[in-house]
Amino acid sequence: MVSSWFCRSGSFAYLRVELGEFVAFIAAGNILLEYVIGGAAVARSWTSYFATLLNFRSDKFLLTAHGLADGYNQLDPIAVGVCFIICIIAVSSTKGSSRLNYIASIIHIVVILFIIVCGLIKSDTKNYTPFAPFGARGVFKASAVLFFAYVGFDAVSTLAEETKDPGRDIPIGLVGSMVITTTIYCLLAITLCLMQPYENIDANAPFSVAFKAVGWDWAQYVVAAGALKGMTSVLLVGAVGQARYLTHIARTHMMPPWFSYVDEKTGTPVNATTVMMGATAVIAFFTKLEILSNLLSISTLFIFSLVALSLLIRRYYVSGVTTNANRNKLIICILLILGSSIGTAAYWGLSEKGWIAYCVTLPVWFLATAGICIFIPRARSPKLWGVPLVPWLPSASIAINIFLLGSIDKDSFIRFGIWTAFLLAYYFFFGLHASYDTAKEFEKSKGWKNNIEEGNAASNGLDSKDAPIVPS
């Protein structure tokens, strides 16, 4: 029961239990931002592939607004239309959405296999020279943006209410889908780089343009059609997942409960879906793909770090069980892990050729992680399934995520800071009070129910301790 509750609410509930309501709200706000930005980016890519399907340049349907700032002046009306259609499908029926996704997924898999096989046929190993044209810094900068591809997996956890055995099915779905997606992503990247030199790759519709460049003009239509199918599926899954995520948050009253309304006929969260897809359409209309990808990567890496941190706390701290001495040791070790990781990332971003600081930050990280492993006893063990190699794996996740953050540009951090400031203002002026009032009402209601149970037990000659416990 507990595991299914965690699965239904996803990382929001996990962080809320382990790190508190405030951290969970900030994380939830960034997860919603991920979904909106990710959907906007996919919608704009949809337009680019649609243009190549009609044998135009990938930016053919973008409208230039000279009065707007650079990066926001390439307007995309087609992306808005696509978001509108996806919204209608998503609010109509969950089963209908699932059937459409099922059909689209089969077509998408066929097209992916076509790209890999036919692309390798037209491959040329000379295109891998130079192998790393931008050096190690280019690799890590690309790795930071690569997290763009891992947005949406959290949506799997929000669909647990519609699975028969969430404690088993959700972990299998998450891990399995990530392994398959990572493998396919690597194969596609290898194929693309073998087909074209890196400087000739089109950022908006890379595979369609690549097949046209190698002389297979007919293949660009197959690829474009398959890409449109795939991106439509991605948008639909994102619309379903992000709406349910917002619904879970609204049920805690940290967001207006209006978002938690579920239509009785369709069984879908109509208000949450409409608002989220509306925000997606607005951002897709104005914002350049590069800006979206960098901002999304910051948000994703931030969430990954928080989840890894909460895992350490969950395994090594239980209130009333962990001693004060062990709690203080854990706090010190976690602060050292965070401090050394931030120091490594900052030095990487500021120093082009230096290495002295790494001789300090990396050993500090290693010793802090070893300190948790050796000197702090585990307070809790997983019952159904759990992350292996704790504390090393979550500690490494924190270090790597923070390190990759150091490769993202300054302007993206400014945009992220503005969004975080908005979340803080909303939480302290509205969300905090609403969730507190809801919690107090819940406690009163629970006490009232328990009093009734005790009264019924007494009338039946039972001791109050034998009365049935009302689930909370």
Automatic annotation (TrEMBL):
Spell out the molecular function terms from Gene Ontology.
L-glutamate transmembrane transporter activity; L-lysine transmembrane transporter activity
**Which InterPro entries does this chain map to?**
AA/rel_permease1, CAT_C
Q: Provide this UniProt record's keywords sorted from A to Z.
A: Amino-acid transport, Membrane, Transmembrane, Transmembrane helix, Transport
How does the record say this protein sits in the membrane? Multi-pass membrane protein
Q: Name one GO cellular component term.
A: plasma membrane
Tell where it localizes: Membrane
Top-level lineage group: Eukaryota
Please list every transmembrane segment annotated in the UniProt record, as residue ranges: 21-43, 77-93, 100-122, 142-160, 172-198, 218-246, 267-286, 298-318, 330-349, 355-377, 389-408, 414-436
Domain Cationic amino acid transporter C-terminal: from-to ranges? 385-435
PANTHER family recorded: CATIONIC AMINO ACID TRANSPORTER 1, INNER MEMBRANE TRANSPORTER YGJI-RELATED
Q: Per the similarity annotation, which family is this?
A: Belongs to the amino acid-polyamine-organocation (APC) superfamily. Cationic amino acid transporter (CAT) (TC 2.A.3.3) family.
Recorded protein name is: Cationic amino acid transporter 1
